[in-house]
């Protein structure tokens, strides 16, 4: 099972806070420098629009009967081409979850990552942060992973852990390093005809909204950050959003108003979901 860029240390700290900040506050966007004009959607690439319902199952083989929704987001390694084809036969689009920010000792390509790019532990068993500055080393590995997604028939990619510069990784990563890496990740996906989603990384949305085709967010309601995702909605791009601890009656009304595709999930990201 995997989830997003908030490590367990951050999660546990958040859970101890009594009365989290006002939900869905109108935080202002941060950062400057918007995307290049060349970062426009290519003809034929899937462009998920706001309001699409979705299922997010990263724990084990996908259960195609778990939710009657048009979008499934599933683990790229743990599911095969037939799993994707089954979802397509049911009329669904399928997103390929891939970790691009951490080395995982349980993946079949673990030996492709030299020790020089493996940093500190990220709070998940068997994982270490990657030195995203070493793009010449990491690019071919990520290209092979995205090739796998394409060959299995996925429509899009959800790259995880793309805000490492905000974490204690063991490397002196900067926001500039992260922007460079995140743009590279989007390029790799687009070169293969795959849509790509920006996972969390709220501070860099102004710079990346033109490059990414949709957003994936965890816990923006709990942290009062959902308004910062509106650049994607205004651009006609879906925001696939999940909460873990907030009851639906606390975030769904505002989520619907903002145009987010929101639901509540359990930490293990199995089949259970409670949609807005």
List the helices and strands and how they pair.
Layout: H1 8-15, E1 54-57, E2 71-75, H2 81-89, E3 93-99, E4 102-104, E5 118-121, E6 127-130, H3 135-151, E7 156-160, H4 175-191, E8 195-199, H5 205-208, E9 214-218, H6 230-234, E10 239-243, H7 248-258, E11 261-264, E12 274-275
Parallel strand pairs: 1-2, 2-3, 3-7, 7-8, 8-9, 9-10, 10-11
Antiparallel strand pairs: 4-6, 5-6, 11-12
What does this structure look like?
The protein is of the alpha/beta class. It has one domain: Aldolase class I (TIM Barrel), CATH 3.20.20.70. Helix content is 26%, strand content 19%. The protein is built from 7 helices and 12 strands. Strands 1-2-3-7-8-9-10-11-12 form a 9-stranded mixed β-sheet. It has a 3-stranded antiparallel β-sheet with strand order 4-6-5, with no helix packed on it. α3 (135-151) packs parallel to α4 (175-191). The radius of gyration is 17 Å and the shape is globular. It starts with 7 loop residues before the first helix and ends with a strand.
Note the gap between the termini. 23 Å
Computed over alpha carbons, the radius of gyration is 17 Å
* SSE order: HEEHEEEEHEHEHEHEHEE
Q: If helices are DSSP runs of H or I spanning 4 or more residues, what is the number of helices?
A: 7
The geometry reads as globular
The top level CATH class name: Alpha Beta
Biggest sheet details: 9 strands, mixed
* Strand order, sheet with most strands: 1-2-3-7-8-9-10-11-12
> What number of domains?
1
**Percent of residues in beta strands:** 15-25%
Helix content estimate: 25-40%
CATH topology: TIM Barrel
Number of strands: 12
Structural class based on helices, strands and sheet pairing:
alpha/beta
CATH superfamily: Aldolase class I
CATH architecture label name: Alpha-Beta Barrel
Average pLDDT: 88
Taking pLDDT < 50 over at least 5 consecutive residues as the criterion, the unreliable ranges are: 1-40
């Amino acid at each position: 099972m995997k989830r997003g860029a908030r490590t367990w240390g951050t999660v546990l700290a958040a859970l101890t806070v009594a009365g989290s900040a006002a939900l869905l506050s109108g935080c202002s966007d941060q950062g400057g420098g918007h995307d290049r004009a060349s970062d426009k959607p290519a003809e034929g690439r899937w462009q998920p629009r706001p309001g699409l319902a979705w299922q997010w199952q990263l724990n084990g083989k996908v259960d195609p009967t778990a939710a009657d929704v048009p979008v499934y987001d599933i683990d790229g390694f743990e599911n095969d081409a037939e799993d994707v084809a089954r979802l397509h036969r049911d009329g669904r689009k399928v997103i390929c979850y891939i970790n691009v920010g951490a080395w995982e000792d349980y993946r079949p390509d673990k030996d492709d990552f030299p020790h020089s790019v493996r940093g500190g532990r990220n709070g998940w068993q068997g994982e270490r942060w990657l030195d995203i500055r070493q793009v010449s080393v990491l690019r071919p590995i990520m290209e092979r992973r995205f090739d796998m997604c394409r060959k299995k028939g996925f429509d899009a990619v959800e790259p995880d852990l793309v805000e490492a510069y905000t974490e204690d990784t063991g490397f002196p990563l900067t926001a500039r390093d992260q922007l460079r890496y995140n743009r590279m990740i989007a390029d790799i996906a687009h070169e293969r005809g795959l849509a790509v989603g920006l996972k969390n990384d709220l501070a860099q949305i102004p710079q990346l909204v033109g490059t990414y085709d949709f957003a994936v967010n965890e816990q923006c309601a709990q942290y009062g950050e959902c308004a910062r995702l509106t650049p994607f909605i205004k651009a006609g791009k879906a925001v696939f959003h999940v909460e873990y601890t907030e009851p639906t009656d606390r975030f769904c009304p505002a989520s619907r108003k903002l145009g987010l595709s929101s639901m509540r999930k359990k930490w293990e990201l199995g089949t259970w979901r409670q949609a807005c």
